[in-house]
Design brief:
By secondary structure, the chain is an alpha+beta fold. Helix content is about 30%, strand content about 15%.
Length: about 180
Amino acid sequence: MASKGLLTLSAAHVAAFCRSRPDLAAPDIYFHILPATVDRDALVRLQKIQLEKLPGISIAACQLRPQSRGHVHICSAAPLAPPWITPNYLDNPLNRHVIIEGLRGARRIAAAQPLADFIDHQISPAKDIVSDADLLAHARRVVDASIMPRIISGNTNAPTIAIAEKASDIILADAVKMP
């Protein structure tokens, strides 16, 4: 029996590592490539991640060692009060360069033969977004793991979950101590 749903797919069917500049000793971009696309209308309207019904491909570029750093501050002694988060996404010029090169690299992957023969159109970023400034404006909507003191060279999902679990343990322990 075949299962259905988003979790029946791996996070990426294809992974590729590359350098944003030829002078680097190691890759600094990690591409996640998945033979599906997210229904953006359902994401915005329903706050639900669903795959689109039509065939598609997603190519996501991830910077492996970002330099930008954000911070999180506790704003209240109330355990359920949200923290003040300043992510500083793409604050560092190197981050901006790598993300722009990642978006351009994703386009080069999609334009390569024989894959290009199967691609009808590009959705995001829109095909007319070509300048560095426009690509950067598009990238500023994406979330990163900027609270990490040093980002690992690979998938950040498990470390991010571990950090969140540890933070929740600390917050709950502090809440118990409060009068």
